[in-house]
Amino acid sequence: MINVMCVRVVSAIATNCYIVNAVGSSEAVIIDPGAEYDKLQAVLRDNKLTAKAVLLTHAHYDHCNAAARFQADGCKIYMHANDLFLLESKENLAARHGLEFNCFKPDVLVADGESIRECGITFKVIHTPGHTSGSVCYVAENCIFSGDTLFCLSVGRTDFATSSTEDIISSVKELFALEGDYFVYPGHGDGTTLDFERKYNPYVRT
Ligand SMILES: [Zn+2]
Ligand SMILES: [Zn+2]
Q1: Given this model, what pLDDT does residue 14 score?
Q2: DSSP of 160-201, one letter per residue?
Q3: CATH-assigned architecture of domain 2-200
Q4: Which one of the ligands is nearest to 58 CA?
C-alpha cells in the first residue's frame, strides 16, 4: 500500500508535486519536485519523511527545477533520455519565466516498460511522448502520475520543443488501454480517474 500526498503548488505556473511512500515507511519518492525545494522539505519534515529519489515526468523547469538540490541531498534522479536536451536549453522554459535553471545530471535514464524499485515501491514507466518527446508516466499500484500528458478533462500543451499532438493522443490512448481503473495524478490541476477520462476527456476519444 502506498500513500500519495499532493503538494500544490510548486511553481509559478501551478505545478503539482507528489510525495509517495509505502505505508509504514519513512522513505519517500518525489515525483516532480517543481521549483520549491524549501516548501517540499517542510512537508517532508512535518510528515517525518526523508526523500530518497526524484522521478521526473519530463524536464520543463516547473517540474524539475528543485531536482538539483534534492540530488545534492543524496536523492537519485530519474528521467527519460529524450528530455536531456532540455537541461541545456532555453526550451526548459525557465528563462521564459525570468528564472535561472538549476542544471543537474540524472542518475538513471528510464525506458518504456521498465520497472523502478525505490523506497519499497515499484513504479512502472510508460513512455508517453507528445508534450515533450521525453515525457513519461509512472504507474504505482492503482495510481498513474501523468505529468503533463493527461489532465482532468484535458491533455498537455503541444506547442513546445519536441511536442507532437499526434503523439500525445496516441500516448493517452495507451494509458486508456491499461486494464481497469486508476487514480490519475496530473502535473497541473485536479486529480481524476482513468475511467472518468475514458468517458469524458474531449481530446481523446476511444
Ligand atoms: Zn511541461
Ligand atoms: Zn507543467
Answers
A1: 85
A2: STT--HHHHHHHHHHHHTSSS--EEEESBS--EEHHHHHHH-
A3: 4-Layer Sandwich (3.60)
A4: 1
